[in-house]
Every structure is written in C-alpha cells, then in structure tokens.
Amino acid sequence: MSSTDSRRSIATVCLSGTLEDKLTAAARAGFDGVEIFENDLVASPWSAKEVGEHCAELGLSIDLYQPFRDFEAVSPPVLARNLRRAELKFDVMEQLGTATMLVCSTVSPDAVDDDDLAAEQLHLLAEHAAARGLRIAYEALAWGRFVNTYEHSWRIVRRAAHPALGLCLDSFHILSRGSDPAAISTIPGEKLFFLQLADAPRLQMDVLQWSRHHRLFPGQGSFDLTAFTGHVLAAGYRGPLSLEVFNDVFRQADPAPAAVDAMRSLLALQENLGVADLPPAPALAGHTFVELAVDDVSAPRVADALRGLGFAETGRHRSKPVRLWQQGDARILLNTDGSGPTGSASVGAVAVESADPVASARRAQRLRAPILPRDHRADEADLSAIAAPDGTSVFFCRTGAETGDSWLGDFTLSDAPGPGAGVTGIGYLGLTQPFDHFDEATLFYRAVLGLEPEPVTEFAAPFGLVRSRTVTDPSGRVRIALESALLRRGEWAPSVREPQRIALTSDDALASARRMRELGAPLLEIPGNYYDDLDARLAPDPELLTALRRQSVLYDRDEHGELLHFFTLVLGGRVFFEVVQRIGGYAGDGAANSPIRMAAHRGQRAAREGEASTED
Questions:
Q1: Which residues fall within 8 angstroms of residue 75, CB to CB, at 6 or more apart?
Q2: Helix, strand, coil % (nearest 5) of the chain?
Q3: Which one of 44, 168, 246, 519 has the minimum C-beta count within 10 Å?
Q4: Distance from C-alpha of 197 to C-alpha of 526, rounded to nearest angstrom
Q5: pTM above 0.70?
Q6: Per-residue model confidence as pLDDT tens digits over 404-458
Q7: Which burial class, exposed, middle or buried, applies to 489 when counting CB atoms under 10 A from its CB (0-12, 13-18, 19+)?
Q8: Residue 68 near residue 44, CB atoms below 8 Å
C-alpha cells in the first residue's frame, strides 16, 4: 500500500449535527474525504453544488454518495421507476463532484430471488452510470432479502460483467454474519470499488438493530479489523479507508471530538497494518504517581487517610502547592492548586513510567491527543502531559536519578520514615468514565499508550448495570480499569456518581489491613452476609475465612490464582483507596465483589450523614 493510497475518509452519518457541522469536524480532524449520506444532504440548506464547493474549500474529497436502495431483481415497471430515480441521483452526484454511488442489496418486497435478473439489471444501472462517468459500488447488506454475504454479491457483480460495477465491502456486514473474509483476497482489486470499516461488540441480537445502534470505531469493539483490512489490501484495493459507523452515542455527541476519535482509530488501524508512519509506543514500566486535586478542607483529611495507610510525607514541590506522599514505590501527590467544590478530592493526573517520555508525547500528538501546556521554571523537569477523554492529565515520566531529568528533582525531599503498612506500589487505577466517553477512553489508552483492552464485563450494581473494561500493558505494570454506568435517570442515584479508585499493592493483604487499622485508616466495613455467602460459594480455608471476616477483606479466585483486597471509605466525595494482593496468576480486578463494595460505601455514607444531621 503506497503512501498515495493511505487516504482516510468518514461517512457523515458517523457524526452528530448538521451536514455543515459534520464536514467542519471531519476536516479539522484531518480526514482526506467524506461519504455523503443522503439524509444529511436532503436536510441541508445548501445545494449539492454548494456542498461540493464547501468540501473543496475544506480540503475534503467526496468519495462516495450513499445509499441507493432496493434497485435490483424487480419487474419492468419497478425497474423503470428505479432507473429514473437513479438518473436523478446521478444529477446530484455530478453537482457534488463525486463519481461513486453505493447501491445496497435489496430488502424490497417487490424483488425476486433471481441472480440472473439482479445481474442483468445492475449491468443496466452501471451502463447508465458509465455514460455519465460514474460508478456503482454494490454492497451486500447483512440483512439483505436475498443477497446478504459478500460472496453472493461478488457472484452477481461478476455475472453482470460491467467495468463500472464493482463491490463495496463493509466490515460490519461481513463480520457480523461470521463470514470468513480470507476469500476477499482472491477478488480482483479493480473490482473492489470501496471499503467501509466499522467495529462492534459481540452481541446476540437482530443484526439490523446491532448495525443501526452498536457499531464502533476500529479498536473499540471485538472484530479483527486488522486481519479483515489486510485481506482487502492483499486483493489490491487502492481506495480510501473509510468509516461508516451507526452509533446512538456518537450521533448525539459533539462532532469535533468524535471526529478526532474516529481519526485516531484509523491511524491505529493503519499502524497495525504497517502503513502508518507513527512513532512506536515506548515501553511502560509502571505507575509513577497519582495526583489528587484537593483543597484546604479536603487536603488534611486525605493526608490523615494516607498516614493511616502507612504513607509518609516525603517531599514538597519547590514552586507549586504540591506535596509528595510515599510508601514503597507508591507515590501520591496532593495538589491544593485546584478549583473543585469545597472539600472535594479527585484524580487530576496520572503518570506512567516511560522508557522515552518525549517519544511517548510525540506519539500522543500524532494520534490527536491534546498536549497540555505546563508552566515550569527553567530548573524544573519539563514533563510531557496530554489530556485523556475525561479530562484527566496523563504524564510521561522517568523517575531514576541517573537520567538527570527526574521529576523528583522538582521536590525538596526528606528522609522522614513513615509508619509503613506493607504497601509496595500502585497496582492499577479505576477511573469511572462518563457513558459517552467509555469507548473513546478505551481507544485512547489503547492507541496512545499502547495498552491492550481486556474483555468487557458487566455487573449489576446497587444503582444499575455497570460496564467495566481494563486496559493494560503486556507486563501488567500499567493497568487502568475503565467503568461506566450504562443508564442513569432520575434523582435516585448514588451520591458518588463517578468514583475514582487507586489500587495499592501488598504482599500480605491481611497483615496490611491489621496494620492500617492500628494506624487509624478509614477502612470500609463489609457485612457478615458476604462471608457467609463466600463460604458457600468458594469454601476458603476456615482460618482464612475467619481472618478475612475479622479484617473486612474481600476474596476471589479463578483457575489461575487468588485475590485478597479491601477498601477505604470515600474521601473528598469521590476518591477511595483499595489494597490488593494477587496470589498466583490471578489477573482480574475482583469485579464480582464490586456490588458488595458499592453497597457498603453507600451504607457507611448514609450512616455518617445521619450522624452529622443528629449532631446538627
């Protein structure tokens, strides 16, 4: 695939807003072209000629006009009406300045199951198109009445035998039916007129509803689009890589960031195909620090909690109101230079240890991640920072003093020993995402940081269904659990709407829990019913069960190993800490225990609120 073939296009149906909004967003995101969806054009106050001129001003080609429906395998009177309709659409295409029209396989009750007739009528349509310098790209809809696989559509196109008739291949229509795309590589490249790409989660539902509501950008779902696109390129396809995604969230979201997300997905796909000139993602070696945004009210409370968890204040920033707390390799920064609600605490920034922070930032910028400007003195580290979709700052750091540019040099450090409670480091972060950003966040961390997503899990929480997906580096040292409530309506909802979790690691969770209780840590109490059920479900050793119950430590296991973990109360209205011990090869996050933790958090908050009202 040569550089001139690496054009990227997007269907206007992918984005929200008017046609003018969509075109502007596509151009600003860096797309080379667009597919004009007929409904967008019909609703636009601009004429087709004006749309074409505006696209040219924006630097956008119009690569496809779509869709033209229910054409083939019909009676002569219906065919005559369809040809008239086609000629009028050809007029529109000429004004737009585009040469290819998408024709979907029919779903019409007027059609008959006759491949010879379909081929004959598509040949006639192609003849009309060719007379005006246009082409027809025939697409098999996954729910087509008679033609619903690419193999069938190719038989008809081959039988029609017209140079102006070729195929449009749509990854969703092919992969949703479980078709093997390998045979695509045997189709002559000159007959592949257009390629449309969409990812999707694996769902058991009507394929039409699946397509209309649940498509995703590449890298956000479960389809192997790298292999699929590889087969298309191997056949000799030389057109643009174009996105056609129907998604209820995307069609209500701001089109500007949605278009950036779409572009990022194509760049990442091209990287997987070996045709994108992107800096490789540098290796990551773990979580460097987590910065909490606090104020004068919440800072002392969080500091007391950290002290109870065994942390010590080990440094103060030389020019900013930031204090460093550390235990083992776990570092928490408290930054009082925030603007949140009084008494609040939230994760404002996360930092990962990068083998090459500059290269990490360069890759992020190429993948359209917003680079955050930072004020710093000449003698302070110039940390590279980007913004995640939810607004969290992501820093790329090197900590070792031997590098000469360690961020720790910005702090006045002390050797004050902390009480210690067995914490060894930061294991992972749990960041709740706004529902509209869940898939975008998955792609962001996958493409920009090089993290790989694990399968999506869902669990019934006290306040509705929660979706969770963890992204991690190959070594498992950088791990972020993304969560989102699937639906939340009305006033009855938890007071912590988007909680954030910092998971600390320990080699002995029970010993850490005992020590933290001695130090006065605000630990979450788990009800006895949980341990009765645990005994019935997993039957842990009786001595272990007794210790778990006494320390309010939760437990899980799978075929690879075991997990022991416990939690603090919620601090500053949103943040809480978790302490985790993994035994053997257990690699999950204890999702089965999440509803227990959520209910316990709710109950203890309600109890504290009741005590406060009584005191008042």
A1: 110
A2: 40, 25, 35
A3: 519
A4: 47
A5: yes
A6: 568 888 899 998 788 999 999 999 999 999 888 899 999 999 999 999 999 888 8
A7: exposed
A8: no
Identity of the residue numbered 370: P
Residue that has been written with the tokens 């033209």 in this structure: 68
* CA distance linking residue 8 with residue 266, whole number of Å: 7
Residue 301: pLDDT band with limits 50, 70, 90: very high
Strands 33-37 and 284-293, bridge-based pairing? unpaired
| In the block, residue with structure tokens 């498509």 | 215
Strand order through the sheet with 312-317: 384-387, 393-397, 346-354, 284-293, 330-335, 322-327, 312-317, 411-413
pLDDT at 4 over 70: no
The CA distance from 114 to 136, in Å, is 20
Can you tell me the distance from the alpha carbon of 450 to that of 366, in angstroms, rounded to the nearest whole number? Answer: 13
The pLDDT assigned to 459 comes to 85
Number of residues assigned to the chain: 616
Per-residue pLDDT, averaged over 491-502, amounts to 71
> In Å, what is the CA distance from 546 to each residue of 396, 539, 541, 542, 558?
43, 12, 9, 6, 21
pLDDT at residue 472, as a whole number: 96
Q: Which of 556, 225, 287, 295 is nearest to 431 (CA)?
A: 287
CA quadruple 611, 612, 615, 616: dihedral sign: negative
Cβ atoms 216, 198 nearer than 8 A: yes
**Torsion angle, CA of 315/316/321/324, rounded to 10 degrees?**
-10
Closest by CA to 263, choosing from 247, 241, 232, 239, is: 241
Measuring CA to CA, how many Å separate 223 from each of 177, 269, 334, 432, 440?
11, 12, 41, 25, 16
Alpha-carbon torsion (270, 275, 277, 283), positive or negative: positive
CA dihedral of residues 140, 142, 145, 146 (deg, nearest 10)? 50
Q: Of 380, 382, 333, nearest to 357 (Cα)?
A: 382
Q: Are 481 and 433 in contact (CB under 8 A)?
A: no
DSSP 16: -
Q: Are 336 and 320 in contact (CB under 8 A)?
A: no
What tens digit of pLDDT does each residue of 583-597 get? 999 988 898 999 999
Neighbours of 573 (CB within 10 A): 17
Amino acid (1-letter code) at residue 391? G
Amino acid, res. 153: S
